[in-house]
Amino acid sequence: MAQATRSSSSLVAHSDDPIENVASWFQANQKPLLYGFGSLIVAAGAIFLYRTTNTNARQKASAALYQAQAPLSEGKLPEAQAALEKVVSRYASTASGQQAAMLLAQVHFDQKQYDAGIKVLESATGSAGADFSASLEGLIGVGYDAKGDYIKAAEHFEKASGMAKFELDKGQFRASEARSLMSGKKMDEAKKIWEDLATREGLPFAQEAKVRLGEIAGAAK
């Protein structure tokens, strides 16, 4: 998440932060009489209110997630499910809300409710930040793999790998993709992935890749 050259009056169209948009716009246009000192004071107040509101929402979401994990740690799945559903519903756009969605999906998976878990994760992807997108896609892949839809699982693992920020995570998702392809009898496609991963010396999945290539070669005989 390369910018073309732009004038100061167009900053608002290129910033990802709504607060930076407001501040930059007022900075670029403060000289015209229409936007005087009084407007700047109003803007400053709006910025403070926005940041305070967001901070309060994040704190409440974090507290709600912490409370929702208590029944989960005790193995009370129905109670944990109800608590996590509330966090997801109220704080979907926050980091805690997205973590709650992943925990809720795992609760469904533990009860073999794979479609329900996948639905939770798919809904969460709409508001997911960059830090959670890959994990959400990976868990969707886990859900499809658990229900036996291996090709669909492989598709989501591949997508998760493309979203992952770090090489280790990318490789782990690719390894999951290759395993699902093997389960789905797509040996040629799996072999290409394992051949690539086998060259990543020093990473944990490189050794597994060599073992899997041996399995594929043995199955071909």
Key phrases:
221 residues; mainly alpha; Serine Threonine Protein Phosphatase 5, Tetratricopeptide repeat; 10 helices; disordered N terminus
Written description of the protein model:
α1 runs antiparallel to α2 (37-73) and α4 (95-110) runs parallel beside α6. Residues 1-13 and 29-53 have low confidence and may be disordered. The longest helix has 37 residues, at 37-73. The radius of gyration is 23 Å and the shape is elongated. The protein has 221 residues and is mainly α. It has two domains: 17-128, Serine Threonine Protein Phosphatase 5, Tetratricopeptide repeat, CATH 1.25.40; 134-221. The protein has helices spanning 18-28, 37-73, 77-90, 95-110, 114-125, 130-146, 150-163, 167-183, 187-197, 204-220. Helices cover 75% and strands 0% of the residues.
Helix and strand arrangement:
Layout: H1 18-28, H2 37-73, H3 77-90, H4 95-110, H5 114-125, H6 130-146, H7 150-163, H8 167-183, H9 187-197, H10 204-220
Helix pairs in contact: 1-2, 2-3, 2-4, 3-4, 4-5, 4-6, 5-6, 6-7, 7-8, 8-9, 9-10
Form type: elongated
Q: What is the name of the CATH class of the largest domain?
A: Mainly Alpha
Largest sheet: none
CATH architecture classification name of the largest domain: Alpha Horseshoe
Order of helices and strands: HHHHHHHHHH
Overall tally of domains: 2
Strand content: under 5%
Which class do the helix and strand fractions yield? Answer: mainly alpha
Number of helices: 10
Average pLDDT works out at 79
Low-confidence spans? 1-13, 29-53
Summarize this entry quickly.
75% of the residues lie in helices and 0% in strands. By secondary structure, the protein is mostly helical.
